[in-house]
Design goal:
There is one protein chain. About 35% of the residues lie in helices and about 20% in strands. The protein is an alpha/beta fold. Helix 1 crosses helix 2.
Length: about 170
C-alpha cells in the first residue's frame, strides 16, 4: 500500500479500517509522540482519566502509560490489544453521537489522526456529545482539519513534525 491517504481514496475510510484495522499502525507514531511530549510540557493537561478516542493501535495510550486510559475504536481493537494489552471499547463516532458513553466522564479526550475523517455534517453532533463527557479535548491531525467550535474554545495550537495539535476547552 503506497499510503493510507491513497487507500482511503481507493477503498473508502470505513472499508479500509474494516479490512486493515487488526494490523493498523500509524506511520506517524514517532512524530505523534514528540508532539505529545511538547503538549504535556507546554499545556500540562490533567490526565487522571483519559479517553483515547479512535485509538488505532494505541499510539496515545502507550505514550501516556496510565492505567486510567480508555481506548475506543470500532475497527482496530485487535491492533490496540497487541500494542497495549488493553481492550478497546468497540464504539464509533456515530455511537458516541447516539449517547453510548454519555454516562462516562474524562479529564481529557485525545483524538489522534481520526476526527478529520468524520463527515463534516456529523462534526457538530460529535463535538456536542463530547462536551457531555469532558471539558478538555486534544485533537492531533496531519493537517488543518478539523477546526471545531460547537461548544469548544481553542486554548492552544502547535505544529511539530507534520503533526498539528489543538487543545480545546468547553
Amino acid at each position: 500500500m503506497n499510503s493510507i491517504r491513497n487507500a482511503y481514496q481507493s477503498q473508502g475510510v470505513v472499508p479500509f479500517y474494516q479490512n486493515h484495522g487488526s494490523t493498523y499502525s500509524n506511520p506517524h507514531t514517532n512524530d505523534i509522540h514528540k508532539c505529545m511530549d511538547t503538549v504535556f510540557s507546554m499545556w500540562k493537561p490533567k490526565m487522571n482519566k483519559v479517553l483515547d478516542l479512535a485509538c488505532g493501535a494505541g499510539e496515545i495510550t502507550t505514550h501516556i502509560k496510565s492505567d486510567n486510559i480508555t481506548g475506543i475504536d470500532p475497527y482496530t481493537q485487535e491492533a490496540y490489544f497487541k500494542s497495549t494489552g488493553k481492550h478497546a471499547l468497540p464504539y464509533s463516532f456515530e455511537d458516541i453521537i447516539r449517547g453510548t458513553i454519555q454516562d462516562h466522564s474524562y479529564d481529557l479526550i485525545v483524538c489522534s489522526f481520526a476526527m478529520h475523517l468524520l463527515e463534516t455534517s456529523r462534526l457538530p453532533a460529535l463535538c456536542y456529545a463530547l462536551t457531555q463527557i469532558s471539558s478538555n479535548l486534544l485533537i492531533l491531525t496531519p493537517h488543518k482539519k478539523p477546526v471545531i467550535s460547537w461548544g469548544w474554545k481553542i486554548q492552544g495550537e502547535l505544529y511539530l513534525n507534520r503533526v498539528r495539535a489543538r487543545w480545546y476547552e468547553c
